[in-house]
Amino acid sequence: MSRPFILSCAILTLLLAAGACTGNDPWHDGTPLRGAISMSGSEPGGPLLCGYHHELIGRFAKSSGRTAAIRLAGRKEAVLDSLRSGALDIVAFPYADSLAADTTLVVLPADSSGIWVFSAARAIEAQKASEWLEAFRESGSYGAVKQPFFQAHTPFESDSCTYISPYDSLLRVYADTLGWDWHLLAALVYQESKFRIEAHSSMGAVGLMQLIPDTAKAFGCTDCLDPEQNIRAAACLLLALEDRYRKIAAGGDELTKYTLAAYNAGSGRIRDCIRHARHMGKDVSRWENVASVIPQMRVDSIAAMGHIQHGTFNGRETIYFVRQVTSFSERYKKICP
C-alpha cells in the first residue's frame, strides 16, 4: 500500500495547498455521507471487516454532524467510477492492500484493515477523514471498538470472555424488549450470520438477522446492512411470532422454541406442523412433540390431508436450528456470564 498512499498524500497536499480549503467555510452541506464497502477479495472467516468499516464510516460521519448512507458494493460494480462521478463520497476496501492511485483519487489507510478512497474533487473531505482516523486511532476507545470485530467469539470457545460480538450492547437492549436473556439473541445472530452484516442467503435473506427484505421493511427496517435496524426489525418480528404461540406453549422455554422454529421456517409451516401433531394425538404444548411428527411432513401424501395448507415440509433444518440456537445460548452463558 505504501506507494499508492504516498502518491495520494502528495495529491491531497497539492490540492489543499492550491486553495481547495476555504478558511472557515463549511466543508460539507450536511447531507448524508454516501458510502460503499467493497468486499472484493474477501474470504470466508476472519475478521468482521465489513461491519468494522461500516462502524468507522458511521462514526466519521457523526463526528461532523451527519448521518451515513452506506451500502454494500456489487462484486463487479465500478465503485471508483461512482466516486469520480460524484455518485459516492467514499468507498472502503477492507481487503485491498494496494490500489493504482491517480490524480482523480485520494487513498487513505483506515488502519491495517484496509483503505478508504475519495475522489480528488472531495480533497477537503479526504483531509477531514485522515485527521479523524488519526485522532480515533490515538483515542482510548479505539481498541475497545476494534477488538470485537477482529475477535468475535463463537459458542465453541473454552475460555471466558468479556464480550461476544461487536453488537453486544444492541443485543442487550433488544433482548430486554423481548424479555429474553441476551445470550439467546446473540446465539440466534451467530446461527444466522456469524455476526457478519453482509451475510446474504440464497433465499434472499440479508444482514445480521437474515431478514427477507420485504419482512424487514414491514418491521421498519429500510437498510438491512445497518446493524441496529436489522436487529430491531428482527426483535419486532420475534415479538409478533411469540404472540402466535403464547396460548399454545407450556411455559417460557417452549414459547422460545416455537418462536425460533417459526423464525426459521415461517409461521405457516409451523401452523401446519401443529395441526398435524394434534391430528396425531400429540400434546402440542411442547415443541419436541411437534418436532417428532415433522418427518411425516416430508412425504407427498401429506399434501392431500385437509389440515395441511402449505404442502410438504422437509423440516430437518428447523429442528436442527432450534437445537443449535438453544445450545449456543447455554454455551454463551458459560463463556460470557
Order of helices and strands: HEHEHEEEHHHHHHHHHH
Q: Could you name the ranges where pLDDT drops below 50 across 5 or more consecutive residues?
A: 1-24
CATH topology category name of the largest domain: Lysozyme
Radius of gyration: 24 Å
Estimate what percentage of residues fall within beta strands: 5-15%
Please estimate the helix content: 40-55%
**Mean pLDDT rating:** 91
The outline comes out as: elongated
Task: Note the topology.
Elements: H1 2-20, E1 33-37, H2 49-63, E2 68-72, H3 79-85, E3 90-93, E4 105-111, E5 114-119, H4 123-137, H5 142-150, H6 168-178, H7 182-193, H8 213-218, H9 227-245, H10 252-265, H11 267-279, H12 287-291, H13 316-335
Overall description:
By secondary structure, the protein is an alpha/beta fold. The protein has 2 domains: 143 residues, D-Maltodextrin-Binding Protein, domain 2 (3-Layer(aba) Sandwich); 168 residues, Lysozyme, CATH 1.10.530.10. It is 49% helix and 8% strand. It is built from 13 helices and 5 strands. Strands 2-1-3-5-4 form a 5-stranded mixed sheet. Strand 1, helix 2 and strand 2 form a beta-alpha-beta unit. Helix 6 packs parallel to helix 9 and helix 10 packs across helix 11. The two termini are 41 Å apart.
Which descriptors apply to this entry?
337 residues, Lysozyme, 5-stranded mixed beta sheet, 5 strands, alpha/beta, 13 helices
